[in-house]
Design goal:
By secondary structure, this protein is of the alpha/beta class. It contains 11 helices and 16 strands. It has helices at 15-24, 51-60, 98-105, 119-125, 200-211, 257-269, 274-284, 287-299, 309-321, 323-326, 332-339, and strands spanning 7-11, 29-34, 48-50, 69-72, 75-80, 84-89, 93-96, 110-113, 128-131, 148-157, 167-171, 177-183, 188-195, 214-224, 235-236, 239-241.
């Protein structure tokens, strides 16, 4: 691995970009670039994650993740097409102050907000350019097999009581996406949805109309579900992609916080050896291709329990083995309910 002092540009100061600033700033010169202004810097993410892995990531940045936790979940309510509601016991799933953690991880680093620099300008000034621009993948070659879902979200304040006291999800027909309700303290929540069939805005606004609440912020953008094996190349010239730009979003849940920070760790460990980085990313996220196949077959009404049972079993074993990473108890019976929806 390269141990030489490097001047590194990190473009896109989301969770992956900020984490890399924190991990690299002691040994290299790192400068961040963020296309949003500092005032408008926000995230479509509902701020949901799992405490155990996040505590480890935060320690590497000399931070305590517990300082950022907003809501510590106990149960997640799941509605299956309005015909059945069941709950999943949680074991660490929480919401947290994502923007606060991002800012603290990036503390002490120079960040140029409201800037989307040209590649040629970065190449002339920096030894290495990290593309952590997420879905936009601004500095890597365009993908030929991309797959994404549109998403939409409100941050809502409830003055007369919240609709739910904990996490709530409603998968759409054929798992074309799902609606989410993530608590943010006593009187606030993120409500939103992502949907292949583009009913995400309608579903979100229908929930808002039914339960009320005051919208204080609205965001929306696509989220990449294409997995790393579909997102090559990971590097091109001086540019190396990290996080969602190279497909580190878990397709079944649309969750990319922990996978993107895991990808960041791989980047730091292999710094200077792009081919080793590529190999380790593909190995670490190999299961994601099976998960995406399951999701796409469900979306396209091509899924059969018997036909796809081995893939479903592999996904169950992976999630069961990593319950703390997902922050919830994993049961085959619950997966079958989703699979048969």
């Amino acid at each position: 691995m390269v141990k030489a002092y490097l001047k590194i540009a990190i473009v896109g100061i989301g969770v992956a970009g900020a984490y890399l600033l924190a991990r690299l700033k002691k040994e290299h010169e790192v400068i961040g670039f963020e296309r949003s202004t500092e005032m408008n810097h926000d995230s479509i993410c509902a701020w949901g994650t799992s405490k155990a892995p996040m505590q480890e990531f935060a320690k590497k940045c000399d931070l305590d993740f517990n300082d950022y936790v907003i809501h510590d979940g106990k149960n997640m309510y799941i509605d299956m097409n309005n015909s059945e509601r069941f709950s999943i016991k949680l074991m660490g799933l929480c919401t947290y102050n994502k923007i606060g953690l991002i800012k603290d991880m990036a503390k002490g680093c120079k960040i140029n907000y409201g800037v989307a620099p040209k590649l040629e300008n970065l190449e002339s000034e920096f030894d290495l350019i990290v593309d952590s621009t997420g879905f936009h993948r601004s500095y890597l070659p365009r993908l030929t097999k991309d797959f994404h879902l549109p998403t939409f979200q409100h941050k809502v304040v409830y003055e007369n009581g919240v609709p739910f006291d904990d996490f709530y999800l409603k998968p759409f027909s054929s798992i074309s996406g799902y609606f989410w309700y993530f608590p943010l303290g006593k009187n606030m929540a993120h409500i939103g949805a992502g949907d292949k069939n583009r009913n995400h805005v309608t579903e979100t606004n229908s929930f808002l109309e039914k339960y009320g609440g005051k919208v204080v912020k609205t965001v929306g953008r696509p989220i990449r579900l294409a997995t790393p094996d579909l997102c090559e190349p990971f590097y091109h010239g001086k540019v190396v992609g990290v996080g969602e730009s190279i497909g580190t979003v878990y397709p079944l849940l649309g969750e990319g916080i922990i996978p993107s920070m895991t990808c960041g760790d791989i980047f730091v460990d292999t710094l200077g050896n792009n081919e080793l980085y590529r190999k380790r990313v593909l190995e670490k996220f190999a299961i994601y291709s099976k998960v995406l196949s399951f999701v796409r077959n469900k979306m396209n009404n091509k899924f059969g329990v018997m036909k796809s049972f081995m893939d479903l079993l592999a996904i169950y074993r992976y999630m069961k083995k990593n319950e703390k990473r997902f922050g919830m108890e994993i049961h085959m019976s619950d997966m079958m309910k989703v699979a048969k929806a």
